[in-house]
Each structure stands twice: as C-alpha cells, then as structure tokens.
Amino acid sequence: MKSWKRRLRKWRNRVARRVLGTRTGREMLVSSVSPTIVSMTADCGDHLMTFSPHDYIGRKIYRKGHFERENVDRLLAILRKRELLRQDAVLLELGGNIGTQTIYFALSRAFRHILTVEPDPRNFKLLRTNIDQNGLQDQITAINSAAGESKGALDFFLHRDNHGKSSALRQSDRDIAITVPVKPVTTLLTEAAVAPEEIGLIWMDIEGYEPVAARSMLPLLERRVPFYMEFSPTFYGPDGSAAFVNHLSQFYENCIVFFEDRQVEMKVTAMPTEQEQFDVLLLP
User: Fold this and answer.
1) Residue 211 pairs with which residues in a beta bridge?
2) Distance of alpha carbon 163 from alpha carbon 156, whole angstroms
3) Nearest in space to 206 (alpha carbons), one of 185, 221, 222
C-alpha cells in the first residue's frame, strides 16, 4: 500500500510540475497565492526580481520572467543605430515602479548611471530591494518623489490592483488617497548632483502626469535630449493632448511612434492623439 501511495504521489508531482511549468499554469498558480504572501522573488536569469504576486506587473514577471523587457531592447537598438547613445551619459527614469526597466537598463551597461524617480511607497520599497539584491547600488540612484512643476506635497492615488497605474490623477473610487513629495525635475537633478548636460535619455511613464512633469524639465527639452514616454490622450483629453503636442513641438521636430504591430517615424505635430495611448520617442 505504501509503495502505491509513493508512486501516486510521484506521478501527481510530475503532472503538477508539468502543468504549473506552462505560462497558463504559472498564471493559475500566482493568481491563487494567499493574500498573506506580501512579496515573491524570481530568478529571471541574469537578475533577481522581487514583486507583489497580487499586482499586475508581478504576475506578468512570474508568468513570463520579465515585464516588457523587449521595449528596452528595442529602444536601445534604435538609439545605437542612430548613434544617440553616450557611454558617459545618465539615464533619467520618471516612474521607476518596482525597477523592472531600471534593472534592464542597468544590465545593458548603456549608461554610466541611472537616476530613477518613483512616488508610490509600495513600489519604491520593492525598487530599492531590486537594486540592492542585484548589486546595482553604485549604478542607480533612486528617489522617492513625484515629478511636478513645484516643490511640495502632492495628492497621489494608489491603484489597488495594478501598482503601475498609481497616479496623481484619480482613476477609480477604489483608489487609496495619500500624499507624496513632489519636486521639479530640475530640483531632482540638483539634489542628485546630476547636471542637465549629463542626461542622455529621458524615460517617462507616470500615468497621465507627463505634461506637468515635462514642464519642469525645460533645460533638458532645450537640449533636445532623446525622450521616450508613454503618451496618454485618454488622460489628457483632446485639448490637453493638443497643448502637450504643441509644447513638445517647440523643442522636437521628429519622433517615432510605437504602435502594437509597427513603428512609424513622423513629425511631432502629427502624433496620433486620437489614440487612447501609445509610446513615443522624441528625436533630437
């Protein structure tokens, strides 16, 4: 009887490993994690990543082993081809989240240093963990703040189900309202002892607050630093989108817009503001 039980147990474990080793199985597993499990750490091959299993980004990391790493690889390939990468430059990342893209950029060794800014305290704690456990403390400076037009405090809304959707703009009645520090980009650079001319790339994804943050970085825009961002007309509205495009077009003439199935180079003034959301690279 004991022999049959052992065989049955081994067979059950083999089946479970095979099923749970698939993307669908991993999704089922991470979706059923107890609420008492606050965080998980995955070995993603060339780095470790700690995340919340109850968050959209964390579940994607568990299922796929990364979160949109292809976007970083794609961008770096474009910048290299156009000879827009400077080995001595600093990357400014606004919206570091838990450090997924931050770590990918750091592993690429494309920049001398990375300055990453993240206002959500839940994300920032994981961001610091991911920097430290990958031994990247000397390569990355992390600041727990929002980027805005003036220094002070800002009402901020924590998304319950997708920490990447937390924003200075309330999106749902379920959002948790808190207050976070806010500083202009120029102030963030000064406090980190980074001169504007050291910045070689701006990467920004801050859930609808992009126009406000952009107005606080005029020295960077005047230098036409390569600028990659998530552009969200669904947040800005028609008038806000038009005003943001007009503001950007005072500094940049050309851009690359990334659609789901293709990328198209166009004039900044021709950006498809009728779309709900897209990524764009503003070219110097």
Assistant:
1) none
2) 12
3) 185
CA distance 228 to 214: 12
- Residue type, position 53, single letter: P
- Residuewise pLDDT in 10s, the chain (284 residues): 557 666 666 655 565 456 555 666 556 566 656 677 879 999 999 999 999 998 889 999 989 999 999 999 999 999 999 999 998 999 999 999 999 999 999 999 999 999 999 999 999 999 999 999 999 999 999 999 999 999 999 888 777 766 656 766 667 777 888 899 999 999 999 999 999 999 999 999 998 899 999 999 999 999 999 999 999 999 999 999 999 999 999 999 999 999 988 999 999 999 999 999 999 999 99
How many angstroms separate the CA atoms of 8 and 218, rounded? Answer: 67
Q: Which CATH number fits domain 68-283: 3.40.50.300, 3.40.50.12780, 3.90.1150.10, 3.40.50.150?
A: 3.40.50.150
Rounded to whole angstroms, what are the CA distances from 83 to 76, 79, 137, 177, 216? 10, 6, 28, 43, 27
CA distance 61 to 49: 8
- Token duo for residue 160: 């319950």
- DSSP conformation letters of 75-125: HHHHHHHTT---TT-EEEEE--TTSHHHHHHHHHT-SSEEEEE---HHHHH
CB atoms within 10 A of CB 257: 19
What's the rounded Cα separation, in Å, for the pair 169 and 189? 24
